[in-house]
Design brief:
By secondary structure, this protein is of the alpha+beta class. It has helices at 21-26, 214-223, 250-266, 280-290, 307-321, 330-334, 337-341, 343-350, 354-358, 377-387, 426-437; strands spanning 36-39, 48-55, 60-70, 73-80, 85-95, 99-104, 109-116, 119-126, 129-138, 159-166, 171-178, 193-197, 228-232, 241-242, 273-278, 297-300, 364-369, 395-399. The strands form two sheets. Strands 10, 11, 12, 13, 14, 15, 16, 17 and 18 form a nine-stranded mixed beta sheet that branches. It has an eight-stranded antiparallel beta barrel with strand order 2-3-4-5-6-7-8-9.
Length: 440
């Protein structure tokens, strides 16, 4: 995950201040699997999978080392399950019955260890920084990432695979329409339906990240509380096809969401048709709210200030939490070459949501976690509160100890996301369902 909104645009991590220990965390994010092969005798005791925690200061990352026997050779692979990375290729420098030294060239790292009391006791080194790493042999080759909130079938509600079309951009969006528990097509009372819009970067319909599937969790919860939902793969992702992706901005993605709202209304199956947007999706929600396209809005960590202002605060917060000076300015941000190379980013830093928020008259539930270091609550939720037209139906709420994904956390840094078992706070789920359910 990078650093903009939903952590998909990583340019803020490419500054010189993010070196040292943090390099170990970041460089494991973009890897190519290249299997290393080492010829050894087949009786080595080190064959199998070994797992442990690497304490990189700003995060404790689970690493899993796989040594697999095949035709007189051993293949060596490394996984970083907390970051959703598998199959990082490694090559052997030394391998025996009781010790090993492997090199992971793609991240400029090495691991050297000796078998001691049944564990590999060694050192992980990357870019000149050495950290202790003790690995314990695992019974299974697969490291289980626990996600207790992930819904499991059978489900007590109906779902339907659907597609809708953004004709202006030539995009066909594919998604899952979830009906509420007890849905009766013949009933006069039509249920409310909510369109989900994801954060920045290409996301699938579940907004899947590091084993978490927050949109699936929210859709399941709402279905069990009488509310229908439609979540869809972003253009160019999953089963969605067509439409410009590389040069697309939030305005393009807004037209995709608008097409989704129009599709839901065309079914004539639902009553109110609203929009739930996370991060950039919250920005898009206000863009459509200002255009009177949605009956209500749930803004999950949606921006309330101009893009360059948001990104500077985001960068400085992340740096400070990482124990480094937070000294980025709007001027230094705009001088970064990446700005000119990324159309989405170039558009975003110039976009000010103030006018769209002022013109939004539908009911709004805007929420943030007070440990969100990507869309900072004290900056963005405060701005939304000041700009949004007054209404008894509006609700703005800050949640203690929650991060950008609305998980209970320690620091709020994105390095914790994969390590936290909780996908989304139960209180947030309950509040969303209750607020939508109370709309008349």
């Amino acid at each position: 995950m990078g650093a903009v909104l939903w952590n998909k645009h990583p340019f803020l991590f490419n500054t010189k201040e993010m070196e040292m220990k943090k390099t170990i965390v970041i460089m494991l994010l973009a890897l190519v699997a290249l299997a290393g092969r080492a010829q050894v005798k087949p009786t080595t005791d080190l064959i199998g999978s070994w797992s442990g925690k690497l304490d990189a200061g700003i995060a404790k990352l689970t690493l899993v080392l796989h040594l697999k026997q095949a035709d007189g050779y051993v293949t060596v692979l490394l996984d970083s399950p907390d970051q959703g990375v598998k199959g990082i290729g490694a090559s052997k420098e030394y391998l025996s019955d009781d010790s090993l030294a492997v090199k992971i060239e793609s991240v400029n790292a090495t691991y050297r260890a000796r078998l001691k009391d049944g564990k590999l006791d060694g050192t992980f080194t990357q870019n000149g920084i050495s950290l202790p790493l003790v690995l314990t042999k695992s019974e299974s080759e697969e490291y289980e990432v626990k996600r207790p909130q992930l819904p499991k079938p059978p489900f007590p509600y109906e779902t339907e695979e659907v597609t809708f079309r953004n004709e202006a951009d030539g995009a066909t969006l594919a998604g899952t329409l979830t009906y509420p528990v007890g849905y009766d097509r013949t009933a006069k009372q039509k249920p409310t339906v909510v369109l989900f819009v994801s954060g920045s970067g290409q996301q699938n319909r579940d907004e899947e990240l590091l084993g978490h599937q927050p949109f699936l969790v929210i859709a399941d919860y709402l279905a069990r509380h009488g509310i229908a939902t439609l979540r869809y793969d972003d253009r160019g992702t999953g089963a969605s096809v067509g439409g410009e992706v590389e040069k697309a901005t939030s305005e393009d993605f807004m037209r995709d969401a608008d097409a989704g709202l129009s599709f839901l209304r065309s079914l004539k199956t639902f009553g109110k048709v609203g929009l739930l947007g996370h991060s950039e999706g919250g920005l898009i929600a206000f863009m459509l709210g200002a255009r009177k396209k949605t009956d209500f809005i749930v803004s999950l960590a949606g921006p309330g200030v101009k893009g360059d202002t948001l990104l500077v605060a985001q960068s400085n917060c992340i740096m400070q939490l990482s124990g480094m000076p937070g000294d980025m300015t709007i001027e230094s941000l705009r001088q970064q070459q990446t700005i000119q190379e990324m159309p989405w980013l170039k558009w975003f830093i110039d976009y000010d949501p103030s006018d769209d928020i002022r013109r939004t008259r539908c009911p709004v539930f805007a929420l943030n976690g007070d440990r969100d270091c990507q869309v900072i609550s004290s900056q963005n939720l405060t701005a939304i509160r000041q700009l949004l037209p007054s209404s008894k139906k509006n609700l703005l709420k800050e949640y203690p100890s929650l991060n950008h994904l609305f998980q209970h956390c320690t620091t709020g840094l994105s390095t914790e996301y994969g390590q936290i078992e909780e996908t989304i706070s139960p209180e947030v789920l309950s509040d969303i369902a209750e607020w939508i359910g109370n709309l008349k």
